Amino acid sequence: MKNRLIEKISGKQEIAKLNLLCFPYAGAGASVYYRWKEYFGNKVMIYAIQLPGRENRISEPMYASVDEIMPDLLEAVGEIVKEKFILFGHSMGAKIAYELEKRLEQSGIYARHLIVSGSRPPHIPEPNPICNLPKREFIRELTRFAGTPKEILGNEEMMNFFIPLLRADFEMDEKYLRKNKVKLECSINAFCGENDTEATETDMQEWGEYTSDFALEVFAGDHFFIKSNAKTVQSLNEIIKRNI
């Protein structure tokens, strides 16, 4: 893909029957979805959002808000959403995916499904924001998410490198709030970790207010259950099979 916001992960354009567009969580890049290559075969084109400030875009300035992303993202996905597509986002990525689908629907473009994973819905504010905490407190609070490897958390030089990215992403995530619950035309499937204290099953159930076609699945694990629970991918694959 020419647009740097989109990275192709796998699939063959000439035989693909559906596009799967994936949105990473705070601090992560497109590479968190590389392992999905082996699961869906060539009939699914897998794309991942690659936000600036990480991986192959490490030197580029980061976005300050979800709203700031939208004009570039709408342009970047233009060709992808001309075919059948599903949106998948985890944590911060779910909020970006929802906001994208909301704006696409305003233009008459509809996903087959929006899959939101490990993310409170837009009307529930972050109860314990960390983005503006002093450095030591910020690093300590990162441990509650279990997403940053201990090897990095314990390495001061590496943390000094990653803190600006993490702060920017957490600010974008924590300050995203929409009291007006805009319902989508597309179906919403919610994935939840049974031990996730950041997006509880009760929180995730409220995504049902954003569509008339809603389903919730609860998996073993914490906030990052998608990393370790293979059943997550199996459930996603079942949704995909129903749409190709």
UniProtKB/TrEMBL annotation:
Per the UniProt entry, what is one GO biological process?
A: lipid biosynthetic process
Q: Which residues form the signal peptide?
A: none
Entry's InterPro entries?
Answer: AB_hydrolase_fold, TEII, Thioesterase
Q: Name one Pfam family in it.
A: Thioesterase
Q: Which SUPFAM superfamilies does the UniProt record give?
A: alpha/beta-Hydrolases (SSF53474)
Q: Which residues form the Thioesterase domain?
A: 20-238
Family that this chain belongs to = Belongs to the thioesterase family.
Name listed for the protein in its UniProt record: Thioesterase
User: Origin organism of this chain?
Assistant: Blautia obeum
Source taxonomy: Bacteria, Bacillati, Bacillota, Clostridia, Lachnospirales
